[in-house]
Amino acid sequence: MGYLVKIMGCGTSTGVPVLGCSCSVCKGGHAKNQRWRTSIAIWGPQGIPVVIDTGPEFRLQALRAGISSLQHVIYSHLHADHCHGFDDLRGLYFNSQKKIECWLHPEYEKELKLRFHYAFEDTGYLGGRPDIVLRSLPEHHGFFEIAGMNAETFFVPHGNAKTNIFRFGNFAYATDFKTVGDDVIKAWKGKIHTMVASGLRWKDHKTHSTISETIELFKKLDVERGIITHMNHEIDYNIESAKMPSGVELAFDGMEISIPD
Ligand SMILES: [Zn+2]
Ligand SMILES: [Zn+2]
Ligand SMILES: [Zn+2]
After folding, report:
1. What is the pLDDT averaged over residues 151-161?
2. In sequence order, what are the residues at sequence separation of 6 or more whose Cβ sits closer than 8 angstroms to the Cβ of residue 180?
3. Predicted TM-score (pTM) of this structure
4. What is the domain extent for residue 192?
């Protein structure tokens, strides 16, 4: 059995519609132009869910995806749109009383503990706190095991920050990168059937890969099915979907992807 992936959200940091914006995408009301902040859930052969990133809509996303128990979370990086739903892990913990492993790059551990200090230290609050166990991703490149899946990760440039991108067997997930190095191409070329990767918009951006750059990456990696995520409000699903080359499509919130063996 292969992997099952659900797109929890495919929007950029502002979400779509953008507050206060009256453009046709934001105001049009089209279901596939409603984008919560970027996140996925993945189920491997053991059927245990792993969530990558908990943005501000995490609670709603988990409800929609039917996630009622969660012990494995990975953070790609700590921009607000990827981790500010961290607090919602409390609800899942209070129900299960099982520790929640959160994997992130060692460079980001201090920052996560600073932002959500009350989850990691005794503040005197009487309501209890979740049992969060931080696990370190490899420094630049390496492998780790999560929920019975073997995962590979690289730490790649994202403007003045860096982000972890991931491969689980023949599925890869990369969000918020500007570029990936030749080491990634060399390691992953020909190994990936389906890849979900961010493409912010068509126009160049200092910290994000554009849709064209991401399509180029799919080609370099010989990906059979490429799916674009982390899109902004310039991307009208119907209009831009029609422009995608064969083998490439745009994500939408709630999309379910089965990855064959
Ligand atoms: Zn982002
Ligand atoms: Zn707009
Ligand atoms: Zn980011």
Report:
1. 97
2. 154, 156, 165, 174, 217
3. 0.98
4. 3-259
Averaged pLDDT of the chain: 97
**pLDDT for 257 beyond 80:** yes
Which pLDDT score is estimated for 1? Answer: 64
Q: What is residue 63's predicted lDDT score, i.e. its pLDDT?
A: 98
Tell how far the Cα of 25 is from the centroid of ligand 3, in angstroms: 22
The string over 48-64, giving b where at least 16 C-beta atoms fall within 10 Å of a residue's C-beta and e elsewhere, is bbbbbbbbbbbbebbee
- Count of structural domains within the chain: 1
Compute, in angstroms, the gap from residue 230 CA to the centroid of ligand 3.
10
Q: Tell me: the pLDDT tens digits for 16-26?
A: 999 999 999 99
CATH number at residue 225: 3.60.15.10
Structure tokens at 250: 């745009």
What is the CA(210)–ligand 1 centre distance, in A? Answer: 13
Q: How far is the CA of 158 from the centre of ligand 2 (A)?
A: 24
User: Which residues make beta-bridge pairs with 227?
Assistant: 196, 249
| CA 151 / ligand 3 centre spacing (Å) | 21
